[in-house]
Structure formats: structure tokens, C-alpha cells
Design a protein that fits this description.
Layout: H1 2-7, E1 12-15, H2 22-30, E2 34-37, H3 51-62, H4 65-72, H5 77-91, H6 100-127, H7 130-138
Parallel strand pairs: 1-2
Length: 146
């Protein structure tokens, strides 16, 4: 997380209930990042060492789940989850590297290849002439319009 923030400004993190922990709330708050984490049902608004989590519990009790999701854009998670799912379908749910540094490199490479694949699919109909459009249609290439 720290490495990513050095390259891009991270303003908020959207995460499901699996990330509901004081440590996560404290880390994000300490980095100046708004934690948008769905807290577990039945959570009580005691700080217990995490003021950020306490505020999240109070806020989520105040609003209905759908309203809270709308306020914070929590519903946007589906976009990221969809990309993760597509990458797993294409490349599998595993990495072959043994060392952590190489695992990271492998995942970056998979994401890079996926991005090229998507750019090619989206770019093919716009950049190509009529003959290539027929070529794409014959081969079942999905054509996206923007």
C-alpha cells in the first residue's frame, strides 16, 4: 500500500467486511486515506484503539446499507472485482514464482498483458478498416462501443 501511494494519490480504500479490523482502519487513517470498509453487523461504536473504526460504525448505523454505499461509492467495488475475476479466469488463480518479489513481478506482468488485451479489443473496431471489422466479427472478437 505504501509503495502504491508513492506513485498515485490514494484518497480512499473500498473494502468488504473481511478487512474490518482496527489495524486496517488505523493504518489507512494514519496514511491520510479514508477507509470505506463495511464493518461487521453487530459492531459496537467503541474505539478500542481505533477512532476511525468507531466513526465508521457510527456512520453505518446511522444510514441504511444502501444509503451508506451511495454516499461513499461503495458500489463501485464491482468494477475492480470484475477485473480481478477476468484476470483469474484468463491466467488462473495462482502464481508460479516462489519468491515474493517475483510473485509481484508476475502479477504486474499479468495485469499488463490483460490491459493490452483489453486495449486491443476496444481499439480494434475504431482503428481498423472495414476489412478488419469483418475479420474481428468472424473470429468472435467482442466489439465495444464507447
Amino acid at each position: 500500500m505504501g509503495d502504491a501511494e508513492g506513485r498515485v494519490g490514494v484518497g480512499r480504500v473500498l473494502a468488504d467486511g473481511a478487512y474490518d479490523s482496527r489495524a486496517n482502519f488505523n493504518f489507512l487513517a494514519g496514511e491520510g486515506i479514508k477507509p470505506v470498509i463495511r464493518v461487521r453487523s453487530g459492531s459496537v461504536p467503541r474505539s478500542g484503539g481505533s477512532q476511525a473504526r468507531k466513526q465508521a460504525v457510527i456512520e453505518q448505523r446511522k444510514y441504511r446499507p444502501r444509503a451508506w454505499s451511495g454516499i461513499h461509492g461503495f458500489g463501485s467495488r464491482w468494477r475492480v472485482e470484475g477485473v480481478f475475476s477476468a484476470i483469474k479466469r484468463i491466467f488462473g488463480e495462482y502464481v508460479t514464482a516462489g519468491k515474493f518479489a517475483n510473485m509481484v513481478k508476475e502479477m504486474i506482468m499479468k495485469a499488463f498483458i490483460y490491459n493490452i488485451f483489453i486495449a486491443q479489443i476496444r481499439g480494434l473496431p475504431r482503428e481498423a478498416g472495414r476489412g478488419r471489422d469483418r475479420w474481428a466479427a468472424r473470429r468472435g472478437v467482442v466489439q465495444h462501443s464507447t
